[in-house]
């Protein structure tokens, strides 16, 4: 996959989404000045629908790299290969959500490569879409990336996408969408505790994650539920 192919797909998708955002799904964006014009930055926000990522692409002037579930890349058959190729061209980075600590570390390394290049990476700390509109406890990935790479986190809250794309559907329905970006959360450059292997302690991760999720709740207006988001069962591995 060449950079030109990836760039062309991304620009095409962004142009299409900006047209949608000006017509059937009017998009209101505030706080864009909180996103640095260059350099590494991590966007972290709530997740209501698959189309959240597409509205982010439409809203943010910089190229947005996204972490996506590995299932997008390993579906069987011709349709599965076409779906995988599309997501590769869009620049989606696969993450195994069910592989335990080793997979989680691999996902962090994948995200770290974007940040080390001075890029902008977006993720959803809940780890899955909200099933009921509430905001659930964040997983520590965003905090770990921020602390280990000294990257500011720009929280965001998105509203309306659950009305644009109902849970379990691919169809988009007309409805306004709003995205609010908050002030950056800057990780401490010293003093946060680390383990012998240099990774942040559980206490440090919890502190940054809790601050982040409270900021997202303020921006999205959602009720914060300090419990893990309900998740589907792990997908059955494809064989043959």
Give an overview in words.
This protein is α/β, with parallel strands linked by helices. Helix content is 38%, strand content 16%. The strands form two sheets. It has a seven-stranded mixed beta sheet, with helices on both faces. Strands 6-9 form a two-stranded parallel ribbon. The chain starts with a helix and ends in a 15-residue tail after the last strand.
Q: What's the CATH H-level superfamily name?
A: Glycerol-3-phosphate (1)-acyltransferase
- CATH fold-type name: Glycerol-3-phosphate (1)-acyltransferase
Report on the biggest sheet. Answer: 7 strands, mixed
Count of DSSP strands: 9
The total number of structural domains is: 1
Spatial order of the strands in the main sheet?
1-8-7-2-5-3-4
Multimeric state of these chains?
single chain
Summarize this, please?
With 240 residues, this protein is of the alpha/beta class. Helices cover 38% and strands 16% of the residues.
Please tag this protein with its features.
about 15% strand, about 240 residues, seven-stranded mixed sheet, about 40% helix, two-stranded parallel ribbon, Glycerol-3-phosphate (1)-acyltransferase
Layout of helices and strands, plus pairs?
Elements: H1 3-22, E1 27-30, E2 41-45, H2 52-59, E3 64-69, H3 77-90, E4 92-95, H4 100-116, E5 120-123, E6 135-136, H5 141-149, E7 153-159, H6 161-164, E8 177-181, H7 202-220, E9 224-225
Parallel strand pairs: 1-8, 2-5, 2-7, 3-4, 3-5, 6-9
Antiparallel strand pairs: 7-8
Helix pairs in contact: 1-2, 1-3, 4-5, 5-7
């Amino acid at each position: 996959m060449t950079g030109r192919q990836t760039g062309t797909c991304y620009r095409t998708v962004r142009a299409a989404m900006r047209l949608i955002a000006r017509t059937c799904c009017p998009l209101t964006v505030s706080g864009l000045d909180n996103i640095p014009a260059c350099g590494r930055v991590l966007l972290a926000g709530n997740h209501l629908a698959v189309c959240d990522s597409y509205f982010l692409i439409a809203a943010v002037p910089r190229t947005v790299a996204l972490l996506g579930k590995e299932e997008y890349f390993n579906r069987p058959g011709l349709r599965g290969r076409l779906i995988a190729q599309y997501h590769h061209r869009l620049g989606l980075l696969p993450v195994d959500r069910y592989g335990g600590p080793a997979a989680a570390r691999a996902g962090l390394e994948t995200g770290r490569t974007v940040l080390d290049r001075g890029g902008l990476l977006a993720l959803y700390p809940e780890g899955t879409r909200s099933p009921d509109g509430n905001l659930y406890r964040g997983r520590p990935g965003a905090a770990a990336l921020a602390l280990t790479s000294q990257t500011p986190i720009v929280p965001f809250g998105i509203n309306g996408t659950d009305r644009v794309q109902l849970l379990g559907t691919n169809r988009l329905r007309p409805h306004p969408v709003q995205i609010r970006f908050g002030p950056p959360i800057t990780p401490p450059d010293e003093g946060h505790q680390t383990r012998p292997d240099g990774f942040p302690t559980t206490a440090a991760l919890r502190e940054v994650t809790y601050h982040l999720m409270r900021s997202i709740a303020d921006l999205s207006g959602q009720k914060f539920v300090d419990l893990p988001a309900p998740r589907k069962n792990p997908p059955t591995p494809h064989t043959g």
